[in-house]
Amino acid sequence: MDEIEVREFKKVKLKKPVMIEGLPGVGNVGKLVAEHIIHELNAEKILELYSWHFPPQVLVDNDGTVRLSKNELYACKSKKQDLLILTGDQQSVTNEGHYLIAETLLDIAQQHDVSRIYTLGGYGIGQLVEKQTVLGAANDAELVAEMKKYGVEFREEEPGGSIVGASGLLLGLGQLRGIPAVCLLGLTSGYLVDPKSAQAVLAVLCQVLNIELDMQALKDRAEEMEKVVERLREMEQAQVPRVREEELGYIR
Amino acid sequence: MDEIEVREFKKVKLKKPVMIEGLPGVGNVGKLVAEHIIHELNAEKILELYSWHFPPQVLVDNDGTVRLSKNELYACKSKKQDLLILTGDQQSVTNEGHYLIAETLLDIAQQHDVSRIYTLGGYGIGQLVEKQTVLGAANDAELVAEMKKYGVEFREEEPGGSIVGASGLLLGLGQLRGIPAVCLLGLTSGYLVDPKSAQAVLAVLCQVLNIELDMQALKDRAEEMEKVVERLREMEQAQVPRVREEELGYIR
Amino acid sequence: MDEIEVREFKKVKLKKPVMIEGLPGVGNVGKLVAEHIIHELNAEKILELYSWHFPPQVLVDNDGTVRLSKNELYACKSKKQDLLILTGDQQSVTNEGHYLIAETLLDIAQQHDVSRIYTLGGYGIGQLVEKQTVLGAANDAELVAEMKKYGVEFREEEPGGSIVGASGLLLGLGQLRGIPAVCLLGLTSGYLVDPKSAQAVLAVLCQVLNIELDMQALKDRAEEMEKVVERLREMEQAQVPRVREEELGYIR
Amino acid sequence: MDEIEVREFKKVKLKKPVMIEGLPGVGNVGKLVAEHIIHELNAEKILELYSWHFPPQVLVDNDGTVRLSKNELYACKSKKQDLLILTGDQQSVTNEGHYLIAETLLDIAQQHDVSRIYTLGGYGIGQLVEKQTVLGAANDAELVAEMKKYGVEFREEEPGGSIVGASGLLLGLGQLRGIPAVCLLGLTSGYLVDPKSAQAVLAVLCQVLNIELDMQALKDRAEEMEKVVERLREMEQAQVPRVREEELGYIR
Q1: What backbone torsions phi and psi does residue B106 show, to the nearest 5 degrees?
Q2: Chains D and B touch (3+ CB pairs under 8 A)
Q3: Which residue of D21, D104, D162 to mutate against B (max B Cβ within 10 Å)?
């Protein structure tokens, strides 16, 4: 295995596809959206990316089998808009790895002649979200103007000065390569996996891409999550433990 | 010394050996089992592995001599089943090192035409174990089915989603190479070196490999440990200090 | 993108320029001075430096566009003294990166035949500064003597034994190459961005370089900051939270 | 500058020299001894070693000049025994760097045909030392026996299972190369620079090497330190702050 190893399953020819990135992160918002799109559009896995820069561990599935941490790229052809959708188990745990993996992903994007990249994530505000909101950032001023038309908010003081990880680097490194890229961040508490915030991000993305998707699965998960939140709220009245994001893997 | 340096002592020709990994980890379960097998079968050391990715220190033996941190591979021929047994002082302390060392170990496994790998470890549950149990994970669904026949348990929520270090990576990276591999984890408190949990893991392994081993040495250590636990329990009634795993090197 | 990638915008021919380094650091003193000089002298950006060793994130500007973390070098010609001014968003976050980036900057300095380097920073004393003071260090005893003439203080016990990051390494690595270099550190509390300390450092630097600069912009920022400090002082009477430097990005 | 850069000042021809290592560490014991020997024997600096693996900072001397962190090797010829003495400002701050630098030092040792290595350090026991004691470890059983004759103690449970850094690795990596090496550790509280412990280590070393050295300078420093300890003890009666080793650089 190389430092970054790309295993291609299938060659596909896409027409100026849009790439959508949804890796694990705050509220797992980006990953929820990416997985939802992959499932609804029945997208096909075309490659897997492994790296020394992912944590040195395997994940155990419910059937008792393991798999190495990886990122995955799915492809979906359609008359309206071909898509490449990136998701995965992990992001890099090293500084260098973040850059190297983002560069590899951009190489792949360019091989497919990607016309634009959307990176998805959550923006944690440290309290329950009252009004679902999607914040934006882009690597080009025209894209900012375009996104505003879809209700994406660009706030002076938010997203807090910086966007960390793949969602940020694909924009920054994409800029150096001249690939237009937008980051869409759903407001979220930051404490829990947030399918409701994912719904808000997906709604904007569908409008922008001019596609329609059944949202029922995300709605169902949002309702399930509401119950978890309700239970936590009740527990909170006794004591006030701040649940860390990592501890939430089990409540997905 | 190279980044990873393998020093071979002896060439051996084995017949489709099974590799058993027992490096230091939770409750030292894997290492206890590996050392017990090496001792009982009088296995022969065939190579040592050194690396920059081990801690920058030497270990001092009781006779005042030092040795560099290393992993060691032992071989044992028998009519029933040839074995390669891996143990050592340390695992990698860097992210990259974990991957590189596991890859090197798999290279060695393939040179010996290993037919299957068993990785051994402990699964810490944070409290005293009432019923000795061996949890499993495998890099192939058929292996899961096979292991169930030997009483290995596969639980939906355990081993907690991930297996860290060599015990996990040998399965995950082995999967990419098509080497069948199983991880056997003995339930343990996680606070103390646990020869009792090691006995449970060894019992399963002996059954699976269809070999017989005298367990007396492990039983004796388990009894010694019982006394330590008893003493700790008494101390706990005054105050409740949580003993960290690293601090237990002296009670082995 | 290479480990360190230098993107040159413009070739300039300078006459034995002096290089001034003002990267982010304690009180942001160095960066404030560098940015002020760039602005007042209308210096021209000649290159950008990107690196894996900067944090894996993009910065979001107020217009919603992002930019990758980078260092920037500006040039300014004048009859008295040509200048190269280095500033940027970040310093390395890895140990190795600090050395590699400093070496790259010295390569660039030598290409331009730099006659001397001034590195600028703040020296945090953990309490409000009563008398603005500029401490110095140099990579040559003659430079120490020269700087004393401009009121730079060299104290036995300060700056505390070591100077960390680019401001230190450009001196240390410059010494190995025979490039004369001075570090000027403005005394600062260490809690807040400190334009007042920046003014003190700039005053010394102007004298040394025998140039004149309008200081109004720094004075205005210092007055603004005074109001922030005043507000914090009032808040402190209720409780005493120690504001961490990183959290102050928003009050610039 | 390379990852590890050796700058040789002077070629010397030594006769089967003994190498003595005294880099910074617990109680600064090793460094105190090495510096004392260099001073008393008027040893001559023959090379400096720089590395990316040292902290990214310069040290400021009392005259206001800076110097890059480095290790230094001194040589001393004599009829009885030629010596190479290693000291320096820092040890590696990365895991890999520890190994690479120790390997480089062993290369240099072999170029000079070193007959034996003595590594020196302190062994912190967390309380004031009642009886000055020198603990030992060696990379060869015969050396252990030899050292016992000089009063060096080899205890089953101490030095606590491992020796970290250059003092350990020169033994461990030296073993792989067949270079005999001994580690001498002076018992010390671990809280303060400890010239008294350094005296004890030096006394053993002088006996072993059959050389005589004036110890007055170390005695004077030990007396100074006694006063500091006395003052700390008085302060302790009011409150009990545990002074960290790093903070003691100023009290040398």
Answers
A1: -70, -35
A2: yes
A3: D162
C51 touching D, CB under 8 A?
A: no
Phi first, then psi, for residue A202 (nearest 5°) are -65, -40
Size of interface A-C (CB pairs under 8 A): 86
The confidence band for D245, taking pLDDT boundaries of 50, 70 and 90, is: very low
Helix, strand, or coil (residue C84): strand
Q: Which two tokens stand for residue B108?
A: 């060695």
Q: Which residues have a Cβ under 8 Å from the Cβ of C87 and sit 6 or more positions away? A: C21, C22, C23, C31, C34, C35, C38, C71, C72, C74
Task: Kindly give, in sequence order, each residue whose CB lies less than 8 Å from that of residue A177, ignoring residues fewer than 6 positions away.
Answer: A106, A110
- With H, G, I as helix, E, B as strand and everything else as coil, classify residue A203: helix
Question: Angle at Cα D39 formed by Cα D205 and Cα D218, nearest 5°?
Answer: 60
> How far D217 CA lies from chain B's nearest CA (Å)?
32
| D186 bridge partner residues | D122, D134
Beta strands (DSSP E) in B40-133 are 44-51, 57-60, 66-68, 71-76, 83-88, 116-124
Q: Which chains, if any, share at least 3 CB pairs under 8 A with chain C? A: A, D
User: What mean pLDDT do residues C195-209 have?
Assistant: 96
Assign residue C237 a region (left: φ > 0; alpha: ψ between -120 and 50; beta: otherwise): alpha
Which residues in chain B are closer than 8 Å to D183, comparing Cβ atoms?
66
What is the band of D128 on the pLDDT scale with cuts at 50, 70, 90? confident
Is the CB of D95 less than 8 angstroms away from the CB of B55? yes
Residue ranges of alpha helices (H) inside D118-213 are 141-148, 166-177, 195-209
Measured between its terminal Cα atoms, the distance across chain A in Å is 31
**What is the CATH classification number for the domain harbouring B165?**
3.40.50.10900
List pLDDT tens digits, range B31-90: 999 999 999 999 999 999 999 999 999 999 999 999 999 999 999 998 889 999 999 999
For residue B64, give its domain range.
Answer: 4-251
Q: Which of residues 61-80 of D touch C (CB under 8 A)?
A: 62-69
Chains A and D touch (3+ CB pairs under 8 A): no
**Which value does ipTM take for this structure?**
0.88
Q: What is the DSSP letter of A153?
A: B
| Structural Rg of chain B based on CA atoms | 18
Q: Give per-residue pLDDT as tens, B225-249.
A: 889 888 888 887 765 444 443 443 3
Averaged over B138-158, what is the pLDDT? 92
Radius of gyration of chain C (CA): 18
Rounded Cα distance, B139 and A68, in Å: 10
The reply to whether residue C56 touches residue A169, judged by beta carbons under 8 angstroms, is yes
Number of domains in chain C: 1
